[in-house]
Amino acid sequence: MRYTLKNTVENPLCGWRDRVFAAVAFFFVFAFVAFVLTLILTDIFYIDSKAVTTVLTSRFIRHALWMSIWTSFATTLIALLFAVPMGYALSRFRFPGRVLADTIVDLPIVFPPLVAGLTLLVFFSQTSLGRWIQEDIGLEFVFQPKGIVLCQFLVAASFCIRSSRNAFDSVDRRHEDVALTLGCTRWRSFYCVCLPLARNGIIAGGILTWARAFGLFGPLMIFVGSFRGRTEVLSTTVFLEQSVGNLEVALAIALLLIFIALFAITIIRLLGGSTRL
Amino acid sequence: MIRTEQLCLRIGTFALQQACIKIVNGQYFVLLGPPGSGKTVFLECLCGLKRIDSGKIFIDDRDVTHLEPRARNIGYVPQDYALFPHLSVERNIAFGLFARRYHRKDVASRMTEITELLGIGHLMPRRIDGLSGGEKQRIALARALVLRPKVLLLDEPVCALDEATRQDICGQLLRIQRQLGLTTIHVSHNLKEAFSVADCAAILYKGVIQQVGSLDELLRRPNTEFVARFMRCENIYSGKLISTGTDCSIARINGGIELQVANQVQPGGSEIKLAIRPEDVLVLPRRHHNHKCENQFAVNLVRWRDCGDYMRAELDGPLNVVAHVTHATFVTLKTEGDQGLNVALPLNSIHVIRQ
Q1: Domain of A4, in residue numbers
Q2: Which of A12, B61, B177, B295 is paired with B335 by a 20 to 30 Å CA distance?
Q3: What pLDDT shows up at residue B95?
Q4: Predicted complex ipTM exceeds 0.90
Q5: What domains, with CATH codes, occur in chain B?
Q6: Distance from CA of A106 to the nearest CA of B (A)
Q7: What's the rounded Cα separation, in Å, for the pair A131 and A111?
């Protein structure tokens, strides 16, 4: 068998040792992809047409789908808004407490999701600052659609910030320096040189954030609940349906979730060029 | 003209210390030094990319010390060129013109001018990825020159190129510099490169400018042992000035041998270093003893090495000496040196470095 992969063109596999090496690598790729595809196929073969009809015609599921889509995209946009300046600052500037800030950025990644929801709930309902934000300013989050975005942001933004920071790290500082000597201001050199060069990494972070936000479940159940037609998103609908015994409908919604995610990630990747996660 | 006064900058353990240089208009100045000596930092200070701790920088008698990089009118070509990989060659070159909001007509005329000067018109639509090292170098130069800067700063502009391309590009750099009358600072660690372009040079070591002068001065009259070694002077001896006369002085090398040296101003007893360039050492067949030449003594040949342009001889005697001789001399020495070799060190070949 002749390998025609891109990276083997310049460095062709010669001899049985090279082939065994490639075979081992491919085995793991195959094993993982086969495992995931098998699970999806199991779901597809388990559901029936009645479940599919229910999913496609239910007003509440359509509402949950819409909630899932807009909240996850809003979360991604807000995360990008934070991630670009934060990633740049953490990558380029040396300031007191930088290491601490860097660690705290990563903290939500290792947070158990339920803890994130619980912490938000306690903050907004038990602390004076939280109550002031909700009651005096009027920004209500608990059991509100806005809360979905806040919850998703807390849990998923770290992926975007981390990815953005790594992307800025990989941009050679001398590109910006040259831009400054060529007549750019600091803002313009960032916008015209640094940002385009870090684009792929930032988009990759955005995709990760969106995927995390789109499938988030645990903290939402605690912080905003799952009220039909109000704060219900697809992931909580799956939970609600299976808890009342509608396993086929739950799996049909899960498949809908998977296909939308697949579609969205593909589109974003195509728009973002050679973006790699 | 570029003038720096007492430029100081500390970065971690490195410190640029009171760097003073003066480069007249239209001069091609080469800043030499080993890697890590602070050459790039010095250039970045001139560009305004590094904020100096103290000192002043003047360009044409205008104090630019606290000006932003874009207000200094300096063209900067960094090491590895730092071309923008997301832009085409044309957009790379025009980048500065658009950043300074030039009118489209002016952009077009300047682009034509610079591409003709550097002969890079055929590269315009290409992307940066596929360019060769020499092409990248010319694009980076065009990007800097299209803004018609007063000063051009080149940070190791040819270090990534092969020997032949390096000589070719150095020739082009000098031609363009002369044509435009640009004051240029070229940073390098390569002596050959310096000899092919420099009007004047300086040597930087551990953040301190050791010596400024013509390459001949750096070569024949080094101020410090480091400068002598950096300029490939292989014969450096420690000793003491034991007497000074009207015509010549006598120096005793550690180890015993006494050498006549050109008359010195420092008093007898001063600690000194003697630097003798290998190409100034005369190697003679012993049977051709030259009575007119000073400092002559017998030596044994340790080994010959062919260095391409010359033959390098390691000689052992009362003084261990390294000599560079031409291939023709080498042939003569081989045929006539059967009775051994002598070494002669003429007075004018011995340079005294004051301790």
Answers
A1: 1-46
A2: B295
A3: 96
A4: no
A5: 2-228 (3.40.50.300), 233-354 (2.40.50.100)
A6: 29
A7: 24
